[in-house]
Amino acid sequence: MAALLPHVSVTVRGLRQLWIFASxxxxxSNCFILREMTTSCGVMNKNTRDPNVSSLRKxxxxxxxxxxxxxxxxxxxxxxxxKSTFAKLLQSASPDWEVMTEPVSEWQNIEGKTSKERDSSPxxxxxxxxxxxxxxxxxxxxxxxxxxxxxxxxxxxxPPPARLLNSKALPVQVYERSIYSDxxxxxxxxxxxxxxxxxxxxxxxxWHSLLVEQFGxxxxxxxxxxxxxxxxxxxxxxxxxxxxxxxxxQLDYLEGLHEQHEKWLVEKSTEIHFKKLKNIPVLxxxxxxxxxxxxxxxxxxxxxxxxxxxxx
Length: 312
Prior knowledge:
With 312 residues, the chain is of the alpha/beta class. It has 15 helices and five strands.
């Protein structure tokens, strides 16, 4: 995508220019991700399909002014570490906790997603972007990481439900991964593997920083829960769940992701570009434990999570 577009600075105005240019080229491959980017962050008015810069500014300013009692926490960890199982455990543990699941289904069926929200070109060939990325990472990694970040952003921008806002206890909104792990784990890993080139990596970081800065408090996290398990254990679970797109995933890929998690959340050696994220509290849980089938392990996890949330 970057090679097809003229040079513009990645600012709100830059996003507007990119969308106008891509639309004028009438090529779905040019337009789709940019359209998703602008609609997700409010630059385009969905009714008029015209770029609307003021909506982004209004949204970002109001989000900074509106103080919410709801704490925001993400669950981080390797592929097949047990995040979805853990998310269900949290959801059932307290009515004051709301879990936002990872938008995997959107990555698996882009045509279904886009057909509901906007006109799809009859020449569009996109469908299962997750599978496309695994099959041809050199071609699709940048596209996938762009779209995955947009879907995560949309998730993190969803307002808390009324029951959390009205809670007399300690309400917490929990995200299954975040826009931060999208950058500092998965996109970074693809860059280091050579699947995202240097130009794409610079562009990704630029617009990622722009969105974080624009939405400010609304996408900040108060804490991170790190489900920590060996790559070997994750590989065992990956094979058991049998997700079709992951058939070709090798152990060395999981080892690379494990190293990225360790650098970011344990060693603190990853270069972080957002002040609050640098010193964010992290709860480490030993996900090598079979907490899905072990009641004592589940109880231990919930106790630790409650104490962690209380300290935020």
